[in-house]
């Protein structure tokens, strides 16, 4: 009976400590969310892009009133860049690892490369004969893969010199959803 009582007391103490730990984590997340929302508000004039990112991060951290209010404020900001050029819907986008290039795949069967800083079109990659379902950069950012409903995956050399299509890889199923590091190139950066 004594062992059972001791076990019950230990279990209750464990539950109380876990509850305190969860409360501490929750309080920390609330404080961090409020701090990020305040930083976002402070950057609205000088750096609206960073302010927008901080507002989203504040909301993801915790759904505080400050974070929700910050989202409404940044949602009302004018768009800095509108990327236009596809003739049909865009179904997939991917940022290059360095964040300077955005690739977009469209139902117009093209892939477009955009300069993130200026919003200008860098290149239009053609070769697919059906919807481009997905785009993904390799970890080093020099290769872009695009998967299409035409059952091909195209690999593109997107080095600064200019895009160059590599022969498509014929698939037997769906399109690409991610890209890993090519075999034999582990040491490259």
Explain the layout of strands and helices.
Layout (H helix, E strand, L loop, with lengths): L1 H41 L5 H14 L3 H11 L14 E6 L5 E6 L4 E5 L5 E5 L6 E6 L5 E6 L3 E6 L6 E2 L3 E2 L19
Antiparallel strand pairs: 1-2, 2-3, 3-4, 5-6, 6-7, 7-8, 7-9
Helix pairs in contact: 1-2, 1-3, 2-3
Main β sheet profile: 5 strands, antiparallel
The SSE order reads HHHEEEEEEEEE
Strand content: 15-25%
Query: What is the alpha-carbon Rg in Å?
Result: 24 Å
Q: Let me know the average pLDDT.
A: 83
Q: Give the proportion of residues in helices.
A: 25-40%
Shape: elongated
Query: Low-confidence parts, pLDDT < 50 over ≥5 residues?
Result: 175-189
| Structural class assignment | alpha+beta
Q: What is the number of helices? A: 3
Give the end-to-end Cα distance, rounded to a whole number of Å: 65 Å
Q: Would you report the number of β strands? A: 9
């Amino acid at each position: 009976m004594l062992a059972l009582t001791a076990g019950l007391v230990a279990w209750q103490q464990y539950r109380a400590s876990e509850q305190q730990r969860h409360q501490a984590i929750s309080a920390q997340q609330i404080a961090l969310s409020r701090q990020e929302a305040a930083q976002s508000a402070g950057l609205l004039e000088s750096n609206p892009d960073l302010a927008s990112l901080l507002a989203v991060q504040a909301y993801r951290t915790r759904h505080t009133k400050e974070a929700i209010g910050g989202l409404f404020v940044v949602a009302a900001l004018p768009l800095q860049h509108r990327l236009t050029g596809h003739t049909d819907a865009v179904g997939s986008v991917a940022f290059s690892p360095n964040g300077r290039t955005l690739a977009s795949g469209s139902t117009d069967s093209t892939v477009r490369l955009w300069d993130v800083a200026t919003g200008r079109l860098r290149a239009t990659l053609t070769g697919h004969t059906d919807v481009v379902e997905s785009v993904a950069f390799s970890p080093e950012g020099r290769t872009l893969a695009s998967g299409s409903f035409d059952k091909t995956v195209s690999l593109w050399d997107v080095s600064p010199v200019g895009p160059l299509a590599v022969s498509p890889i014929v698939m037997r199923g769906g399109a690409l959803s991610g890209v890993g590091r090519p075999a034999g190139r582990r040491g490259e950066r």
